[in-house]
Automatic annotation (TrEMBL):
Residues 74-220 form the TauD/TfdA-like domain. GO terms for molecular function: oxidoreductase activity. It comes from the Eukaryota. The lineage of its organism: Eukaryota, Fungi, Dikarya, Ascomycota, Pezizomycotina. This is TauD/TfdA-like domain-containing protein. The keyword S-adenosyl-L-methionine does not apply.
């Protein structure tokens, strides 16, 4: 999945207007959407066939035979001759279309944690060829999980290491954000997306001052 923020060039001309946003100046394009536009999951999902799952497994075994580091996963060493072409339009949807895609069909329980990461990075390599940083240590992956074995009280942990719901937010460090689900929660555990362009248009229509504050480039960045 990916969330793409409004392009700066498209909003510079309307950013500092005090009046409500005229209809002819609203952001337009495939990034403007609401949940009602995607009533059928098939409309935004890429469902792998059994043959394509087997292809992923073969690519995994081939990569492991090269004795490379996980950071080295790339299209060149994680070859997907049949699935790869299907990922091209998926990448186009993320970069130029609605901004998100759900890939389904892989059974997480079949893979070890390390193999699961390799598969995730291998498929992601067909979406984007660079990886953003998740923290100041240079990690490109973060694990969203809670453990009963941790001694730190849940209320003192970071939100991604608790069972608490997280508010809507935009992750830092990259333009495209990918999530891999390894285990389903016993209850809850839903992921919600919202269109940044739709939010922008609504705020510019009724609260343009809020947009001015949010888009002023003086916010502190914490990683």
């Amino acid at each position: 999945m990916a969330i793409v923020a409004p392009h700066k060039q498209e909003i510079e001309s309307i950013l500092f207007k005090e009046s409500a946003l005229p209809a002819d100046q609203a952001l337009l394009g495939p990034l403007v959407w609401t949940g009602a536009d995607f009533e059928k999951r098939e409309s935004y999902s890429l469902i792998l066939t059994p043959e394509q799952v087997e292809e992923v497994d073969l690519a995994l075994q081939n990569f492991k035979s090269l004795a490379l580091d996980v950071d080295d996963v790339a299209q060149a060493n994680f070859v997907l001759p049949n699935l790869g072409p299907r990922l091209v339009p998926a990448a186009k949807q993320i970069h130029e279309g609605r901004g998100f895609v759900v890939v389904k069909g892989l059974e997480a329980s079949r893979y070890s944690p390390r193999d699961s990461i390799i598969v995730f990075l291998g498929i992601s390599a067909y979406i984007a060829d660079q990886r953003g940083l998740q923290d100041r240590k240079g990690n490109v992956l973060s694990h969203i999980t809670s453990s009963k074995l941790w001694h730190v009280p849940e209320e003192k942990r970071h939100g991604i290491h608790s069972r608490n719901a997280l508010p809507f937010h935009s992750d830092m460090g990259c333009d495209i954000h990918g999530l891999q689900v390894r285990h389903c929660a016993e209850k809850g555990g839903y992921t919600y997306l919202s269109s940044a362009w739709t939010i922008f248009n609504k705020l510019m229509s009724c609260e343009p001052g809020v947009i001015k504050t949010l888009m002023t480039p003086d916010w502190p960045v914490q990683m």
